[in-house]
Amino acid sequence: PPPAPRPLPLLRGWGRESRLPGAMGPRSRRNRWHVEERAPAAANRIALAWLVWAAASVAAGDPKGVSAAPPAAAGLVEGGGAGGGGEVAERRGPRPRLQLVTFMNRMDRRFAYLQVSAEAHLLNPQIIGLGVVAWWPDGLGIKINALRQFVRTRVADDDILIFCDAFDVIVFGDEAEIVDRFQELEESSNHSLFFNAEMVCYPDLQAGSKCDENGTMEEPSQAAVEQTLADIRDWMHEGHKAKRRRTAGTSESTYVSGEFGAVAMYDATNLTMEHRSWLADQLKDIGAKLIFIETICSDENRIWREISAQRPVVAEATSEEKIRILEAFGRSILKLESAYEPISEKKLSWIKVVDGSQIAMNKIRGFLPSRIAQFLMNLNLDRRPFYLSRHGQSEYNRLGKIGGDSDLTEHGEEYATALAKWVQSNIKVGPDGSPQAARLWTSSMRRTINTARHISHEQIDRPNGSEWIQMRPKRFRNLDEIYAGLCDGMTYEEIAAQFPDEAKARKTDKFEYRYPRGESYTDLISRLEPMAHEMERQREPLLIVAHQAILRVIYCYMMDRPRETCYEVTIPLNTVIKLTPTATGCLEERFDIIPKRAGVELDPASH
Asked: Omega of the bond prior to 220 within 30 degrees of 0, cis?
């Protein structure tokens, strides 16, 4: 979270009171009425803001980030539109759309504050004015005319538009929250047009800053970075205080090996050696290892693909807008490159990944740092889908027993045959209908091996000229079902009768519960960690035929769900779950391979 800024009094109107040069007042008012005359009050909602007003409520301590209308909102335009101050029309029809716009002559790195915070709330800020010379104060008319043109061509009559003339704005509210507050303000004031201006600059989140009385930036500081590091220290010290121990013979508390494990990720550019050295000094006292991870991509085509994939606004833009947006990002990258100092400090621990294929390390020692390095070595940016399927119905499924290594029932064999046909037409072929390479994993148990045995393994030629055996089966013991120990092969009724304490303990906490001489879900997570690494390195579609508890853990990993909830995930029989990684998560699709049988319980038992 950003540091708590100084209060931001938002002043009414234009001119001296809002620190705009007095000579600009008449021009501002003249252009303002051009905008207002476009539509009656409430038919066209426009806010010109130098700071999203939600920021003021955060500064005032509102925990939600948006409170009732701030005092600045009293700076309303007289008359409320061409209607001359008439009543606001009753809201009807669909919910208005919120549009967020800023004006930039040229790309500035501080636009990231608006871009990142807006996208976190599912808003897509739009830029107007790139390449146009419109500096303050003479360029005000150009800005207003550009906004007016945008409104006329891109904004529907019932839309709400927030125009941020400063691109270092930060958004604190979701669309629904902002729209509701805006409509409340509009109804309470009988106006649809608001002008707000900030008195002081919001802190620069990269280096920290403040303004003098003339609005000139002075005394750069590390306020925001220091606040973030303070949050990390608080989290590690306070959140895990119970796991600290007093060292014998000293007055200092330290971490006891094996009791405390936490990872904090601080995401920033950290461009210079001086800044990285300063960070290391600041974090020396938290009792944790510090590792810098640097990723470098020299493939420009991949960079643009990633930018397009991660920003919906690019995908929705016209060809001309896409070129302008990508050029703006290019200028931003060049600006960062001009200050960038490659990480090479011998006294720091770091991992450097170049183009996803080269990796360099310095002072990487210990279990967790080594695992992080191994994980990074297996990452790739090819977004291939994963297909998850349980085995067909087994004899133990039919009898209500858990564990074991039973074979398929007749119904399970029916699913195995149908699965092979579905795989042939849905996994082995690409979007254009041509053969594509694919992989197949199973556990080492009979019911998964036999479920996948009808899948064919023909040879195909890959685009690079190499030969590929389609879905050559690979068997992993790591994918075997959770081991029920002394309860293996029993029904839950039998477990309750013979081990009542175990049945009670399992009911109390299914995630942490460990079967007597068996496993728990936490054990499964440790067992499946190498499989996660293997999955991350795959470059072809992958079908995993495994067991319910196993697929629950894999599903939670891929879908970024809390691991403590994995036992709640539904993984039914006769179903294939397709998970397609994207820039923002995984898309999930479920396919019923054979019809469900009415009144037939295929899988009464569940771990």
From this structure: no
Distance, in Å, from the CA atom of 435 to the CA atom of 462, rounded to the nearest integer, reads 9
Written as one string, the DSSP assignment of 390-455 is: EPPPBHHHHHTB-SS---B-HHHHHHHHHHHHHHHHHTSB-TTSSB---EEEEESSHHHHHHSTTS
- The CA–CA distances, whole Å, from 379 to 353, 530, 534 equal 10, 13, 9
Map tokens 């100084």 to a residue.
Answer: 6
Number of other CB atoms surrounding residue 387 within 10 Å: 24
The C-alpha atoms of residue 416 and residue 410 are separated, in whole angstroms, by 10
Residue 576: strand pairing partners? 389, 591
What is residue 13's predicted lDDT score, i.e. its pLDDT?
30
Residue 60: CB partners within 8 Å, gap ≥ 6? 7, 67, 70
Phi, psi of 217 (to 5 degrees): -65, 140
> What one-character DSSP code corresponds to residue 460?
E
Q: How far apart are CA 375 and CA 291, in angstroms?
A: 14
- Predicted pLDDT at 238: 61
Measured in whole angstroms, the distance separating CA 209 from the mean position of its chain's CA atoms is: 28
Q: Are 542 and 380 in contact (CB under 8 A)?
A: no
pLDDT in tens, 255-307: 443 344 678 888 888 888 998 998 888 888 877 889 999 988 888 777 777 77
- CA distance to 231, 403, 412, 528, 552, per residue, from 488 (Å): 47, 5, 21, 20, 19
Q: 49: helix, coil or strand?
A: strand
406 pLDDT more than 60: yes
Residues noted as catalytic: 267, 297, 391, 481
Task: Say how far apart CA 61 and CA 8 lie, in whole Å.
Answer: 12
Residue 130 has what DSSP assignment?
A: T
Mean pLDDT over the full length of the chain = 75
Residue 136 pLDDT more than 60?
A: yes
The closest alpha carbon to 542, from 464, 422, 437, belongs to: 437
The residue with tokens 């790139």 is 130
| Rounded Cα–Cα distance for residues 441 and 436 (Å) | 17
User: How many angstroms separate the CA atoms of 148 and 98, rounded?
Assistant: 17
Peptide linkage before 5 cis (omega within 30 of 0): no
| Residue 165 CA: distances (Å) to CA of 206, 217, 561 | 20, 17, 38
Amino acid identity of 331? R
> Any idea what DSSP says for residue 79?
G
Evaluate whether 325 touches 131 at the Cβ level (below 8 Å).
no
**Angstrom distance (rounded) from CA 153 to CA 390:** 53
Which single residue is written with the structure tokens 């807006």? 118
Within a 10 A sphere around the Cβ of 403, how many other Cβ atoms? 22
pLDDT-derived band at 26 (thresholds 50, 70, 90) equals very low
- SS3 assignment, position 53: coil
Pairing of strands 542-546, 126-128: unpaired
Q: Sort 427 into a burial class: Cβ within 10 Å, 0-12 / 13-18 / 19+.
A: buried
Compute the distance between CA of residue 238 and CA of residue 42 in angstroms, rounded to an integer: 50
Per-residue tokens: 110: 């501080």
Q: Which residues contact 215 (CB under 8 A, 6 or more apart)?
A: 19, 201
